[in-house]
Amino acid sequence: MKTKQLPKGWREVELGDICEVLTGFAFKSNLFNEEEKGKPIIRIRDLAKGKSKTYYSGKFEEKYLVKRGDFLIGMDGEFKVFEWKSENALLNQRVCKLILNKDLVIPKYIYYMISKKLKEIEDKTPFVTVKHISNKQILSIKFILPPTSIQNSIVSILEKAESLKKKRKDADKLTKDYLQSVFCEMFLKENKFEMKQLEEICVKITDGSHRTPQLLNEGYPFLTVANMGDKDFDYSFTKNISREEYLDLVKNGCRPEKGDVLFSKDGTVGKVMRINETKEQVVLSSIAILKPNFNLIKSIYLESVLKTDFVLNQAVDKKSGSAIRRIILRHLKEVEIPLPPIELQQKFASIVEGVEKLKEKQKQSKKEINIMFDSLMKQAFNGELVK
What we know:
Layout (H helix, E strand, L loop, with lengths): L10 E4 H4 E5 L8 E2 L5 E4 L1 H4 L7 E2 L8 E2 L4 E4 L6 E3 L5 E3 L3 E6 L6 H18 L10 H5 L2 E4 L2 H41 L6 E3 H4 E6 L12 E4 L15 E3 L1 H9 L9 E4 L7 E3 L7 E2 L3 E6 L6 H8 L2 H9 L11 H5 L2 E3 L3 H40 L6
Parallel strand pairs: 4-9, 14-18
Antiparallel strand pairs: 1-11, 2-10, 3-5, 4-5, 6-9, 7-8, 7-10, 12-20, 13-19, 14-15, 16-17, 16-19
């Protein structure tokens, strides 16, 4: 295949041509503390947060000190590059630091160039328990390297596009916070309404299937928490079951029906979804199916109240252990919520419907911004963004 002609001064390089990779040190965990003694220590879990509450009180080599602005990569699980934005901290094992030749490359340019490449490596990496990336794989990442003046121009363009993505994300959060605020103001403030347990205002609260049937590539969808979206299931990676299995599980109440509200008890706990149409599909036991008594409560109100921390905190507080891993159906049934008159629930439903229309517009805007950003990234990879 003919190699694409690059502009003068541009070249294709491997990351190892312009950078070294320093792998973190296996610091002794018995010297870790949360009393702020010593230096903060960076573990994989701290990368996304950009800060650490765990400290190391022992001696260390200066080379393992990470400074604000350094770029780090988590080497297990999800492969991503992060800019460290907190105080100086120590580089722990399973995290590596890029030591860049800043005469040849603008650090933020590397951030943009290798992010997509790391994702490609992650997708291709087989795993048994957890995926792992090596120094060699990181150093062999190939990308286009223009002169530093052009790198600055590319970074400037991509930063503006990324800023638009952040604004869209902030707008989505404001929309969610607005609904939470309206709900709390209408229904939780001043304890104006009688409290009722969920099992008192639902006709039935049940689990999905407690057994996993034989899964097929075709047939009737067998859905898990991972398939739950905001308004409908994500069918892009669905497994299926036979008609016989489907009919058997329907008899056992594992099919959500129009008006039901779903609540995830395992995995990502607290995901909520209202069913707007009865379909030929069933769900796993990690999902609870709540069937409202429509004389007492509207589905849209039940969905909204289940999304609040007010509900999740009640269910979680009754669980054993400190980590949120699963919620027992019996505890979910005992959760208490305020029960306002149907007329007030309807008023709130109208507000929710208005916000959902706004969210659809935001969703389309977000999609267009993401397409634009991906297009810019592709052009940058191909040396087409700035010439």
